[in-house]
Amino acid sequence: MQPIVDWVVSFDIPYVTEPMVRFISHIILASIIAVIAPGMLIVLTWLERKIIARIQDRIGPNRAGPFGLLQAFADMIKMFTKEDITPAVADRIPFNISPGLAVFSSIMLFAVIPFAPGIIGADLNVAVIYIIGVGGLGTLAILMAGWASNNKYAMLGGFRVVAMMLTYEIPMVLTLTAVVMVSGSMSLQSIVEAQSGMWYIITMPVAFAIFFFAGVAETGRSPFDLVEAESEIIAGFHTEYSGIKFGMFMIGEYVHMFSLAFLAAVIFLGGWQVPFINVGPDGFLGPLFGPIVGFISLIIKVFIFVFIMMWMRGTLPRFRIDHLQDLGWKFLVPVSIFLVIVVAVVVRLFAPGSTAGVPVEAGPLNALYFNGAGEVVALIIANVLVLAISLFVVTRVARRSRSKGLRAVSAVEGVPAK
Amino acid sequence: MLQDFEFVGVLGFITFTIPVVTLIFAWLLRPKKPNAAKQETYESGIETIGETWVQFKAQYYIYAIVFVVFDIEAIFLLPFAVALRQLPLYALLWAIIFILLLLDGLLYGWRKGALHWN
Lengths: 418, 118
Hints:
heterodimer, A: mainly alpha, two-stranded antiparallel ribbon, 13 helices, B: mainly alpha, 3 helices
């Protein structure tokens, strides 16, 4: 926000001080975020229903307005006017707080996302830890919802979802650690600026894949959607919620998906950067059009990820809970730990020597640094190696357990094993 | 540095009011006719059998404990990650030993069946 604050202060309006201008700019940006983020629900639900319908070879809502655009408004009116049936034995305070907490935690993630060069709500230098912490609040909201409903189905559903979210939180955090190692800072604006050489989706594709799939699991979208598995456990943790409270859980889920798309775009796809064009305030597009072009490119990247998430929902069948947990603990966590070790080794070995007077030992492979290009190539090779080794180990383990299983079955039934 | 959190506070305050305003708005709009049958707990159309707040499976607790261990490990790794390029070379060895100790814990839990969902 600093460029905008500087521009307003340059008018020299009497009695207006810089902290006041900064505060007002914060209020304006916070209002824009707090209104647009839930407002995106309308766009996202329309997009989702149309895309999934087309994937399933049908048209989707087309009655409520031209191309079904007013369908979300109709749903909103329905939700506002439905009666709020609270079970008599439910725990009042967590029951009422948890939908609000789900929405709160999803929108708070937008505080640290850089929208354009210079336009960021809060350029925290611990932004990555902030993201992890605020994301955990959403998990707490689901646990509260399941517990407070005083309904066995809701409680079981809530526990299963929380177990899944805890499992997939760890690969997310570890891959973010790998990204922080390469960029050298936890601030998201610095991570975007560090990608001016090469975007991290190319230098660390394994980290991107793990982060994206663990993130999709965190938000509870399909194929990890045992949260909303209607036929399995009635309706999971939101069984007893009706009307606007259920609507707020939906808002929380869609906004969380939207913020995951933003995070993936900012951290791996270069945020507001445009390939081969410098959109900073000193680039050739100037201080006004540069950030606008950067913002538009960020929005394009975000909607690419949103489309991919909806595509996954329409295509893949749901995972079983034990498969989910096995995938999380036995594949993703070891692979992300291995990735962290490999990235740490590569980054330190290629690191250049002392900068800004800090006496630092150069890494032994510094000769191959070539101003950053050597590190990029080494990271790509390291990622491919990590992927190859982990897939090799997994196929060996799977083959061994499958043959053990076959041998067990054949021992019981007397059929000769292969 | 602490000033950066001003925006987080402002956004937090405004975001806190959104569910409150939504709930108040919905309270004004919706019908309020509670009766005993509507307020019963849902269990596929029958009466609920037994207490709900019963003891739950210990497996959930074990997942939470393993999660806490790895989350703390990740939190310790993050400052190391930020300072990686400025640290001397032997720091890398120590960090790898730290990570391998925790990986050893995961393998132990795996072999003991702590990660098995049943």
